[in-house]
UniProtKB/TrEMBL annotation:
<dbReference type="GO" id="GO:0046523">
    <property type="term" value="F:S-methyl-5-thioribose-1-phosphate isomerase activity"/>
</dbReference>
<keyword id="KW-0486">Methionine biosynthesis</keyword>
<feature type="site" description="Transition state stabilizer">
    <location>
        <position position="168"/>
    </location>
</feature>
<feature type="binding site">
    <location>
        <begin position="55"/>
        <end position="57"/>
    </location>
    <ligand>
        <name>substrate</name>
    </ligand>
</feature>
<protein>
    <recommendedName>
        <fullName>Methylthioribose-1-phosphate isomerase</fullName>
        <ecNumber>5.3.1.23</ecNumber>
    </recommendedName>
</protein>
<dbReference type="InterPro" id="IPR037171">
    <property type="entry name" value="NagB/RpiA_transferase-like"/>
</dbReference>
<feature type="binding site">
    <location>
        <position position="207"/>
    </location>
    <ligand>
        <name>substrate</name>
    </ligand>
</feature>
<dbReference type="InterPro" id="IPR005251">
    <property type="entry name" value="IF-M1Pi"/>
</dbReference>
<keyword id="KW-0028">Amino-acid biosynthesis</keyword>
<comment type="function">
    <text>Catalyzes the interconversion of methylthioribose-1-phosphate (MTR-1-P) into methylthioribulose-1-phosphate (MTRu-1-P).</text>
</comment>
<keyword id="KW-0413">Isomerase</keyword>
<comment type="pathway">
    <text>Amino-acid biosynthesis; L-methionine biosynthesis via salvage pathway; L-methionine from S-methyl-5-thio-alpha-D-ribose 1-phosphate: step 1/6.</text>
</comment>
<feature type="active site" description="Proton donor">
    <location>
        <position position="248"/>
    </location>
</feature>
<dbReference type="Pfam" id="PF01008">
    <property type="entry name" value="IF-2B"/>
</dbReference>
<comment type="similarity">
    <text>Belongs to the EIF-2B alpha/beta/delta subunits family. MtnA subfamily.</text>
</comment>
<dbReference type="GO" id="GO:0019509">
    <property type="term" value="P:L-methionine salvage from methylthioadenosine"/>
</dbReference>
<dbReference type="InterPro" id="IPR000649">
    <property type="entry name" value="IF-2B-related"/>
</dbReference>
Length: 362
């Protein structure tokens, strides 16, 4: 068992690369244990993503990028095409690990594009993997910078003493550092702005209880844990003045897919006239998916609902429906916060303007 603390944020690092090995913080056993799994094969990375060792859209993308590199190491290649085929094969395999988080596919596409460019370059064949690793490390570093920028933009929406509700985990454990929805909370702490954070436990896997409450408490943020079905009362009593969540995919019209239970929070927020914010990097925006109805929703094993920490809590043979995500329609979303600024409705226009601008950026 090892423990690796980020010296800047005092939060645990979810993904790291060390001596040709991908190390993933096993988030399945937090907060009781702090274990890092050392992965050296693509198969292990696939299971690390699929089995929730690593979770959170940006962190999944980072892990997959490193996984592509792992697949090229310690092998002999007859030529560049054989090396490139290895990259493409492994990337396509890793893409099957989870269907909803678009960052997974974004990172893998970026790695394939880099690999194709390297294969067509004059780079010596024995250096191709080392150069590909630099791309994975760039994705990792960029995510840290992106998350801080998201936090800077979001922070202006909050003020000292404000109550803020969040769902699932969109913090440092889900990204390279800072997180998306939790980024303004970390920056607020750094600057002496006191936010009162309420964290949903997030059934059925309890990411809010095990991860969000844990990492915010470790950072000294004022955090209160509540059950998911307490959110309405917390809003009714005026304890929160804003809701902020992350997302695994934003459709072209501004519909957002996030952890199951997010849609219910958005409906509650609208009923109580509370702004509902979504924080995400631009890489989470999927302009090729017109609306939320077309976002694939992952369904997970029934045991996540019928068992709790190894103990059966439901009748044997009971039918179970266990979608991991739901889709919040865009008209429940007050704003989408990216590293490039805050987008407001109508989202089909603001999202298109931003992505078009970035496509033409030199």
């Amino acid at each position: 068992m090892t423990q690796q603390l980020d010296q800047h944020t005092s939060t645990l690092v979810s993904v790291r690369w060390h001596e040709d090995t991908l190390e993933l913080l096993d988030q399945r056993v937090l907060p009781g244990q702090i274990d890092y799994l050392k992965l050296t094969e693509v198969l292990h990375v696939w299971h690390g993503i699929h089995d929730l060792v690593v979770r959170g859209a940006p962190a999944i993308g980072i892990a997959a990028a490193y996984g592509v590199v792992l697949g090229t190491l310690n092998k002999q290649y007859a030529d560049r095409n054989q090396w490139l085929n290895q990259v493409i094969t492994d990337a396509e395999y890793l893409a099957t690990a989870r269907p909803t988080a678009v960052n997974l596919f974004w990172a893998l596409d970026r790695m394939k594009l880099k690999a194709k460019a390297l294969a067509e370059s004059t780079c010596p064949i024995h250096d191709l993997s080392a150069e590909l690793l630099l791309e994975a490390k760039a994705i990792h570093l960029e995510d840290e910078e992106v998350c801080r920028s998201i936090g800077e933009h979001a922070l202006g929406l909050f003020h000292d003493g404000m109550g803020v509700l969040t769902h699932c985990n969109a913090g440092g454990l889900a990204t390279a550092r800072y997180g998306t929805a939790l980024a303004p909370m970390y920056l607020a702490k750094e600057r002496g702005i006191n936010l009162k954070v309420y964290a949903d436990e997030t059934r059925p896997v309890l990411q809010g209880a095990r991860l969000t409450a844990f990492e915010l408490q470790q950072a000294g943020v004022d955090v209160t844990l509540i059950c998911d079905n307490m959110a309405a009362m917390v809003m009714q009593k005026g304890l929160v003045q804003a809701v902020i969540v992350g997302t695994d995919r934003v459709a072209a019209n501004g519909d957002v897919a996030n952890k199951i239970g997010t849609y219910g929070l958005a409906v509650l927020a609208k009923a109580h006239n509370i702004p509902f914010y979504v924080a995400c990097p631009v890489s989470t925006i999927d302009m090729d998916t017109p609306n939320g109805e077309l976002i694939p929703i992952e369904e997970r094993h029934e045991s996540e609902i019928t068992e709790a920490f190894g103990t059966r809590t439901a009748p044997s043979g009971i039918k179970v429906y266990n979608p991991a995500f739901d889709v919040t329609p865009n008209d429940y979303v007050t704003a989408i916060i990216t590293e490039h600024g805050i987008l407001k409705p109508p989202f089909h226009i603001s999202l298109k303007e931003l992505t078009t601008k970035l496509q033409h950026k030199p």
